Amino acid sequence: MKIKSLTFYFILILLSTNSVILGQNISITTQNDSLSQEYLLPIGAHVITKDFLIGKTHYEKDSTFVLIDKEHTVLNPIYGRIQKLTYDAYLKMYADALKDSIKLTVTSASRNYWVQKHIWDVKWNKYKDIGKNRVLHILKYSSMPGISRHHWGTDMDFNGTSSSYWSSSNGKRTYNWLKNNAHKYGFFQPYTLKSNSNRTGFNEEKWHWSYAPLSDIYTKAYFDIIKINDAKNDIKGFSGDQFAPELNIINLYVLGITNF
Questions:
Q1: What's the CATH code of the domain at 104?
Q2: Which long-range contacts link 21-28 to residues 24+ away (Cβ below 8 Å)?
Q3: Is 169 inside any structural domain?
Q4: pLDDT digits over 24-70, tens only?
Q5: What is d(CA 232, CA 116) in angstroms, rounded to the nearest whole number?
Q6: pLDDT in tens, 145-157
Q7: Residue 21: inside a domain, yes or no?
């Protein structure tokens, strides 16, 4: 996994206890191993903990998250929070897109473990009649709780997930603008068309864009920290969680992205 560095604040992680202190040595408990690893985060970013990486966060109580203004989203305020650094970059992109008559409305932002669990469980019950393949069917577009990039406050969906919109003339114009310009503001599309690459995991999502200066680092940390303990110890607590290890869920889905 190639992780790019910009102008980042220093965080040293030594995996052995459960505390996190910005800019100082921090430790996280592991099952069998300890690992020294440096991560460089921008000042103001959410610090790295295991609970944060798997979405066990209450965004409304977190000072690194802000409420998306109603001008920019259709979301209920309960679900309309994002990391401030992500939002600041989005606001610049939003303003410039408007100059080209493109409106980027946020239709999904941060979702913690428990919100993702509700989404997963609804689909698990909905597709109960398709047998053992229902896990893979749900994973076409929906994440297991604990592996979603939406947990981190770095990823947003724009203008809905309707295939009819993204195949319309307006949808095509919006997508072309994002492909040509989003990188200028630090955003990239993590789930591109799989047939054009060796990417694995979720299907193409033209609506899903990620703020790389934060999400690249969290992806690297996820691989280092969560994989140490194996998926069965951390990706659990929901219907069908027993399939996470055998599906190689971290390598094929968490890491199954297009690089920035």
A1: 3.30.1380.10
A2: 21/47, 22/47, 28/225
A3: yes
A4: 333 333 333 333 467 899 999 999 999 999 999 999 999 999 999 99
A5: 18
A6: 999 999 999 999 9
A7: no
